[in-house]
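Morning, I've got a small favour to ask if you have a moment. Here's the protein in full, and shout if anything looks odd to you:
***
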Amino acid sequence: MPEESSQLLILNQEIVACTKCPRLLRYREKVAREKRRAYREWTYWGKPVPGFGDANAELLILGLAPAAHGGNRTGRMFTGDRSGDFLYAALHKAGFANQATSLHRHDGLQLKNAYVSATCRCAPPDNKPLPEERDRCLPYLTREIRALRRVVVIVTLGAFAWDGTLRALKAIGHVHPAPRPAFGHGVQVRVGPYLLLGSYHPSQRNTSTKLLTESALDEVFATARALVESQETSDETEG
């Protein structure tokens, strides 16, 4: 097993077993017990959700946290909800996924040169983790970034993920330029060896109000593809 895969396996096992945040533990398990009527036949995951994808990825995609009836139900990030429908369709178009749908953990989805994760690993009430919950989860993200040794581009889905990424990179010694880079859709900033690319989160609120359209998200991942490829060309030239 490659070293990266071994590190991620150990990390993901620790994430799934995590009980550091009592409020989130109670909420995720309550949702898993009570369920949504449409999913009453499902056995909910109801635990922290690990990252998913290619251990040798050059692209890392970060969201806020698992959705209560999405990742918290299926056990895979951005899987089983409308946000995932938008995200994986865009990844498929950009050549980062073998299929455009993400329904459950055993649906055959594979990511190519991409890894999907989140700043917080448990579904929070009202999609709002508390600052202390974010901070307890931050070490998992720093370890994840370290383990994904080939990552050169990080797409942050929303301001919360943008902030979490800057905090995680600072924790591993990569300080952002001053002043602190503000989040925005399409904003790019280099932090150490990483290029950060901001995107509005593909939440149902953002997509239904057209704050984020399908074409706008497609453009983000077309840009991410170009940035990854330009970095590969630069490395080859330097080599």
